[in-house]
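Anyone? Bumping this.
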Amino acid sequence: MSVDPVQSRPEIENLMLESRTFPPDPAFTAQANATADLYEEAERDYVAFWEKLGRERITWYTPFRTTLEWNLPFAKWFVGGELNVTYNCVDRHVERGLGDKVAYHWIGEPGDTRTITYADLQREVSKAANALKELGVRKGDVVAIYLPMIPELPIAMLACARLGAAHTVVFGGFSAEALAGRINDARARVLITADGGWRRGKKVGLKHHADEALTDTPSIEHVLVVNRLRDGCHMVEGRDHWWGETVNRQSEHCPPVPVESEQLLYLLYTSGTTAKPKGIVHTSAGYLLGTSYTHEMIFDVKPNDVYWCAADIGWVTGHSYIVYGPLANATTGVMYEGAPDTPDWDRWWQIVEDYRVSILYCAPTAIRAFMKQGESYPAKHDLSSLRVLGTVGEPINPEAWLWYHTYIGGGKAPIVDTWWQTETGMILITPLPGVTTTKPGSATFPFPGIAADVVDAEGRSVPRGGGGYLVLTRPWPAMLRGIHGDPERYRQTYWSRFPGMYFAGDGAKRDEDGYLWLLGRVDDVMNVAGHRISTIEVESALVDHRSVAEAAVVGKSDEVTGQAIFAFVILKAGQEPSDALALQLREHVAYVIGPIARPKYLMFVPDLPKTRSGKIMRRLLRDIAEGRTLGDTTTLADAAVVDVIREHSGAAEEE
Ligand code: PRX
């Protein structure tokens, strides 16, 4: 939802009408990991709060000297300390006797399953790390990973971290071009990919995208290919190696490499308002502490829980809350490869029943999709094992919150609506189950130790009841350390709008009780199914097509994906609009960026409304997009729309 936080839009009114509150159940409170006094303890001295946790929770080779060095906007946490992230996520649990505990129950879409214990993980990660070593990977190198949701994905990430190498995971749904751009920006030496994976009952090839990307990636020396589909794929002699052959002949022993607290752990690329994606930098110790501590407190994770974060590891949610946070806590997790509707809309609920899942973390977009199918699907299954539910990625509308609460949580499981970003690394605004009285649609309060504010355009704190821009006013352990290779862009993007504060790019309201209500992005970044996509990238992809002269895209509210992409396209002279061309253009975007960016709607227009300085008036386009019922594609703007566009064209004031 792109919302002007200062002018009330319908989304805000909707949220504000919701006045129901859900106090914690005393029985839950009595057993909860989190307690109300955490807030006070953290407020007394937030650095001391994180210091204590850092000493207690991380196993160090060398203890840190200084908890925080803060040269705004550059932070260093746990300075002087040495650790290994993989040791903390795997080996130390095996040493404590938890080798037989399940780390992942993995479920392939076709129904194949694998059970991976912590001892299995230690062996597999060590072998994979030895294979990477054989291919020349050393501390400080970057490895690109382009895999479906299979166990080799977390294994590959942990193998990198074991060596002190960094990974950059590229979501399997991204195109060859997107993959190549990320590999080149990160200067990755090795790519780990697979022949393909399963999605909606079909085999989805990955290696041919990778091959296409690799025609333009000079830094890549070797490619490791997981044989998931088992029907062969093109292999380049000398460059490509089967994972099975290369990894399986390695020794099961590979000593973890001690690294400094601020060693690069990974880069993860996220959309910005300019065409070039930003390589968000996350480092080792602060990230590990932030993700594992929030995981334990916010999801109330206990040793016997079965925890399922149903995100894809290609996004930050999977990095922090499928891999690093949960593994550092020796949690038993569920990992599912495929789509929620395959073979039918109760696939998730079948998994919850089969594995007695007790904690479920997913996106509002998934909840809305389930809602649309009706409650008969969850009703077919025993969901009584569920005791905590979470959401992430976009604001959850109260209706979806209540549906989740009623039909999935049996009316009793607390819901944690968690706000955070790729950049923040860890959850920052969230209820604490057993502590916080929740309101459907509100992410409630900052996590203990976190300081957030809602400010006006001049950076002044907005009184309760008002709306504005969400900012963070203090550093936190898992915060991004920068944008890869571009410290100036880091400063500009996050720290320049309001001096001394991190501007998240989101609008927010604080109600009379101090609850925070997130209102979506205030810039031109769309939020499609919980993923940020910048308008400029989609526009560039459209203009990349030989028939297109100019394009503007906006987000249109969508009951399932939150926002759907709506493209306005001006054709080059001599080109005729047609359904076939509209389809071709939508496919072109999917090809250039990936299917997630394929416009759901496309309208050919003769003109675009612009300000005198030439900026496209997106607000007007959004009104047009929202105000009309259109089919999947509309090849010709009808006269009324053309009139509206013409009327505003040129005559409009600056936004
Ligand atoms: O607009 C906010 C929205 O998702 C953005 C971050 O997107 P990304 O970096 O892809 O990370 C998504 C998963 C952490 C935010 O700027 N967002 C995320 N969680 C919420 C949310 N909006 C409202 N409520 C949330 N709980």
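Late reply, but here is one note on the structure posted above: Residues 106 and 335 are 5 Å apart (CA to CA).
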